[in-house]
Each structure stands twice: as structure tokens, then as C-alpha cells.
Amino acid sequence: MNAKERAKYESRAKIMKALAHPARLLIVDELTKHGERCVFDLTELVGSDMSTVSRHLSQLREAGIVEDDKRGQMVFYRLRVKCLTSLFDCIESVAKCHVNSQLKALAR
Questions:
Q1: Cα→Cα distances 8→21, 65, 72, Å
Q2: Are 30 and 45 in contact, with CB atoms under 8 Å apart?
Q3: Which residues of the chain have pLDDT under 70?
Q4: Contact 57/66 with Cβ under 8 angstroms?
Q5: Number of C-alpha atoms within 13 angstroms, CB side, residue 104?
Q6: What is the set of domains in the chain, with CATH numbers?
């Protein structure tokens, strides 16, 4: 594998790692549905303290998934890309197929 291919796969892995936590998935889902949200709103949604939510947001920002906008004392976050909806639809399809396969195996 050449350096360009390696960089491509490392970049993909970084994005997948950033999404690989239930709280971060919840944050991304919220931003997908409602657009921009402030840290305070996301803290209430996730049910964690502000420092924990800020760390989650930092990981999402470093992966290029969200961007922030500071307005006075408040920081607002929004998705950088809209294609995550398609990714989540794909993940839901895989999950449904997996569950259906497990149910069929149990019925035998």
C-alpha cells in the first residue's frame, strides 16, 4: 500500500472512531435533525457534564464532522457535511439485516 492509500484509510478510520460512541452519535443525530445547537443544549441532551460533552465535540471537530461558531460566551456547533444522513440510513439497513438474520437463526 502506498502512502496516499494509507493516508486515505487512516483518515477514514479517524472519522469512524469519532463516530464510534453513543453520545457522539446522539450529538450528530441532533445536529442532523435540528441544525445548529449550543453546547448547553447538547449537554442537556446527552445528560453528561459540559466537559465531557466538550470532549466529544472536540473529537467530532478534529475528525471534520462538525464545526463551531463562538458568539459571545456561547459556542454553537453544526455539521460540516450533510451526507451523514445517508451513512446513518446505511447503518440502519445493516443493523436490520443483522437482527433479521439472528432471528431466523434462533427460529431454527
A1: 22, 16, 37
A2: yes
A3: none
A4: yes
A5: 6
A6: 3-81 (1.10.10.10)
Grid cell for residue 88:
446513518
75 three-class SS: strand
- Let me know if 20 is exposed, middle or buried by CB neighbors in 10 A (0-12, 13-18, 19+): exposed
pLDDT for res 95:
87
Q: Is residue 74 a contact partner of residue 18, using CB atoms and an 8 Å limit?
A: no
**Measuring CA to CA, which residue among 71, 72, 74 is closest to residue 54?**
74
Q: Which residue has the cell 431466523?
A: 104
To which H or E segment does residue 71 belong? strand 66-71
Spatial separation of the C-alpha atoms in residues 32 and 78, rounded to whole Å? 8
pTM of the model: 0.84
